[in-house]
UniProtKB/TrEMBL annotation:
GO MF, any single term: oxidoreductase activity, acting on paired donors, with oxidation of a pair of donors resulting in the reduction of molecular oxygen to two molecules of water
Species assigned in the record: Mycobacterium noviomagense
A family per Pfam: FA_desaturase
InterPro entries the UniProt entry points to: FA_desaturase_dom, Fatty_acid_desaturase
Protein name: Stearoyl-CoA 9-desaturase
The Fatty acid desaturase domain, residue ranges: 69-339
GO cellular component, one term: membrane
A GO biological-process term: lipid biosynthetic process
């Protein structure tokens, strides 16, 4: 099932993990020491560009209700919302720019263009998700309480609708993020404290109400003052922009957490967790996707999800350079660096969600050695594996161990297929 002993799974010694922490700490220190005007200029320009995009989208919607202008306005507004949520809101609220001491660009003051309250998001995401990343029963982002994304989650009948639920979550992703802190599951099960529940619902309702009025009442009414536009055309455009933002945000975030190679962990694995073990869990539990400058920007630099989980409070514009050094560390310790083309990574998340809509008895791979669910037990036959390869002199760690087990599995399947063909020919 999920990883229960990260050292055994990673094929690293205690000394290795301590050295790993030292090297990753050194990367952090280098970036902190070099932060300065270049980084401050980047975030200020990004905020200015995002606001210009939003104004342009609003003006396009007011200038004409013709289909071409409507689509241009809706898409421009959708892009503005993506930039605000991904590259600005997400990263500012992580404290990536707190070192500037700018009261406008600070994690404690930024309120993003989203249904969920920033206060709630900072707790659920910064504290719960990043501290307990991919630990079953502690990280609510593992399936968002709705989807089955690992075999460690017991199959229930509603999981048959995994694909339907994921489609709904993608379209209305801001609602999923906003309602996460309300903890509807605990409310339905009667496990939520009444006073805390009322406070959370009130805070969510107040923020969501403001957002709904802004998008579907205030701006449509303002635009309708133009003789070239109507209230309904702007309302529909705002709805389209929100859906565009939701679909993109969902895709980027899922690519960072649910493709093949993003490991899951048990509660026991964090008992007495050292800094090196925490680093290791972040590296193994996250996944990247390949991206150029435009894709990096539009994803909030979360194409570097591994680096973001290692250093969630370092400026997002520095993650690309950090990734080069993190990859070198992975190569040194023979650890997998999970990445791939965006569409392929996203397709893998949908494949996992589709596959796990079925009970385990209908799945081919074992619960300890499946693309989406692995544990140290998959290496039971690799006794004495580790150290250095006597033939090449290279370290043999997790990356080589996974490749070895996969090779065995392919070989067994090939032999079984050959035997089956031989029997068929003989018959």
């Amino acid at each position: 099932m999920a990883v229960t002993d990260i050292e055994v799974f990673a094929h690293l010694t205690d000394a290795d993990i301590e050295n790993l922490a030292v090297e990753l700490d050194a990367i952090r220190q280098d970036i902190e020491d070099s932060r300065g005007e270049r980084d401050a200029r980047y975030i200020r320009r990004t905020i200015a560009a995002q606001r210009a995009l939003e104004v342009a989208g609003r003006l396009l919607l007011a200038a004409s209700s013709r289909r071409t202008a409507w689509w241009a306005g809706a898409v421009t507004l959708g892009v503005a919302k993506i930039v605000e949520n991904m590259e600005i809101g997400h990263n500012v609220m992580h404290g990536q720019w707190d070192w500037m001491n700018d009261p406008e660009i600070h994690s404690t003051t930024w309120e993003w263009d989203n249904l969920g309250a920033s206060k709630h998001w900072r707790y659920n995401h910064n504290f719960v998700h990043h501290k307990y990343a991919n630990i079953l029963g502690m990280d609510d982002d593992v399936g968002y309480g709705l989807l089955r994304v690992t075999r460690d989650q017991r199959w229930k009948r509603h999981n048959l609708f995994n694909l339907v639920f994921n489609t709904m979550l993608a379209v209305a992703f801001e609602w999923g993020v906003g309602l996460q802190h309300v903890e509807l599951g605990k409310i339905f099960k009667g496990r939520a404290a009444p006073e805390e529940t009322r406070a959370r619902i009130h805070e969510f309702g107040r923020k969501a109400g403001r957002q709904l009025v802004k998008d579907y009442v205030a701006f449509p009414a303002l635009t309708s003052l133009s003789p070239e536009a109507t209230y309904m055309s702007t309302l529909k455009a705002n709805l389209a922009a929100n859906v565009i933002r939701n679909l993109w945000s969902n895709a980027v975030i899922f690519c960072g957490h649910f493709p093949d190679g993003a490991e899951k962990f048990t509660k026991t694995d964090m008992a007495g967790e050292s800094k090196g073990q925490w680093y290791l869990r972040q590296m193994l539990g996250s996944a990247n996707f390949n991206a150029g400058p435009v894709m990096r920007f539009m994803s909030g630099n979360l194409c570097h999800q591994i680096e973001h989980h290692l250093y969630p409070d370092l400026p997002s514009n520095r993650l690309a350079e950090i990734s080069v050094r993190v990859r070198e560390v992975c190569d040194k310790y023979d650890l997998p660096y999970t990445t791939g083309p965006f569409l392929l990574q996203y397709a893998k998340t949908w494949r996992t969600i589709a596959k796990l809509s079925l009970p385990n008895k209908y799945l081919r791979d074992t619960a300890d050695n499946a693309p989406e669910t692995r544990s140290e037990r998959m290496f039971a036959e690799l006794e004495g594996f580790g150290g250095t390869d006597p033939a090449t002199g290279r370290r043999r760690g997790l990356k080589t161990a996974i490749a070895t087990v996969r090779g065995w599995r392919r070989s067994k399947r090939a032999k079984a297929l050959a035997a089956q063909l031989g029997d068929d020919l003989a018959a």
